[in-house]
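Quick question, first post here. What does this chain look like in 3D?
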Amino acid sequence: MALYDQDTTQLTESRYAIENLVDLGQLQELFTQFTKATGYTIGFLDHPGMNILISTGWRDICTKFHRSCPISEEVCLKSNLHLLKQLDIPGKVMIESCGYGLVDCAMPIIIQGKHIASLATGQLLFKAPDIEWFKQQACIYGFNEKEYLKALEEVPVVDEDKLRVVTGFLGNMAQVISQMGYTRLKIIEDAEQMEAEVAVRKRAEEALHESEERYRIIAENTADTIAIYDLNLNPVFVSPSVLKLRGYSVQETTAQSLDQILSPDSIQKVKDALIDRMALEASGKGVMLKNELIELEVYRKNGSVIWVELAASFLRDKKFKPTGILTVTRNITERKRAAEKIKKLNIELEERVKIRTKELERVVKELESFSYSVSHDLRAPLRGIDGWSRILEENYSQVLDEQANIYLQRIHSETNKMAELINDLLKLSRISSSEIKFDDIDLTSLANSIVSLMQDIYKGRKMEFLIDPGLTAKGDKGLLETALTNLFDNACKFTGRNKQTRIEFSTIKENDRHIFFIRDNGTGFEMKYAKKLFGAFQRMHNSSEFPGTGIGLATVQRIIHRHNGRIWADAKPNEGATFFFTLSEEGKKNSRIG
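> Answer (accepted):
Ran it through. Tokens below.
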């Protein structure tokens, strides 16, 4: 039966008592007839079996004795609960002995998956009772032994198979009672629903007048045009604001066909967005339609065309079947004009950017040419100064005093520094302008080859290099070799005063991005000066302490930027420095201007 279609493996309480769902008077009469005809007791218990609602033929041994004493009644209730707890599915029949050895039987009354009552019979025996044991019970609970044993004599001894026939009948009766209860439940629920619907309808009718008045005021005074269409897009209602929107009155608008209102392209948009999709939904091939927002071209009475934004909502019946379309239309002509203007400006801006980029590229090329020319032109006089000073030293060193010879040595030193600076500037210029090629680079192997070079340059020093295995990246091998060489050389230079130099090259991972670092145990620096680190000619220490041109870290930064990465440092005075850098993991090429 439909009543049992639901999952009843987990039975729960109903919000209705069994008294509300079953006619107890009618059942009492039926039970009485059953007991007269069969001699079997029958009882009707609420859930979970704590109260006997109606009963017939109930034995005195239970009513006058076992249930009359609070202590013995606890045994009865415990037996009842254990028996009824096992009634978990409709039609199930449970037979077991109670705490006093009497046979009890129960069948559940289940309505809509709710176990709300039970049908019970029993107070029987399968064999002759143990009189001595019952005498002990009379003594324990203070029963009158003679009357108690007399009540025991009234308990029939029955055949187990015959009992199962009776309980089978009662199981069917329990299902009939469940069906009756279900029918009554549906009547109650339908009545409650009707009452609720009547109350809702009454409130709705009371609110309808107010809402209609509010709607009329909104519809007549809003700047947007509100309309309702049937499924064939014939207007059912149009708000008076259509006059301001199109110049046509409500009467004129409702008499117009769709091609008198919309441009051909806009009619196609409406067809695609509404009519075709409604057809797909009706066929079961499309999803349920939601609100639509469409931009359309609309004809005005004066012959002009305006742009509108139409928001369409689908009106539906209780089965969610579309019954009509509610639209709100807003004039967006000015917005469209502004958007077109912005689009035009963007196009013009893109053209300007292209022109400026070309100009910038031209300037960069001119600067490259200028740098090369200046460096080339500077080298000749430098060589002249160095050459003439050497001739002066060779031919007149005996004539010049000691101070003059010191000056000549300084001239040699300064011209060498100037030549080195020019070379570094040329390298920096080439890095900025050269094309780069992204490949898979084994940074560990590259670093190890640089370490060998450093050990040759700084012979005689105790130096420990810790290079992590398996370090890889995408980049230009030549440029990355230049960057790492500068960083390692920088670390070697600023650990020169240490008895033991320790330089580490490794990586950390942060937010799925690899961050490489080179750490040393050198002189370090104050972090408040860190902004100067990567500027050309910027130095953190005196050149007399740590020689160099001040171009190295600027070169490193330029290379890292060309690889779409970034570089930064962390340090403390006399506690070493760590240079961190990232590289583009996608390997995208940067522009030559970079």
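The two ends are 80 Å apart (CA to CA).
Residues 45 and 52 are 4 Å apart (CA to CA).
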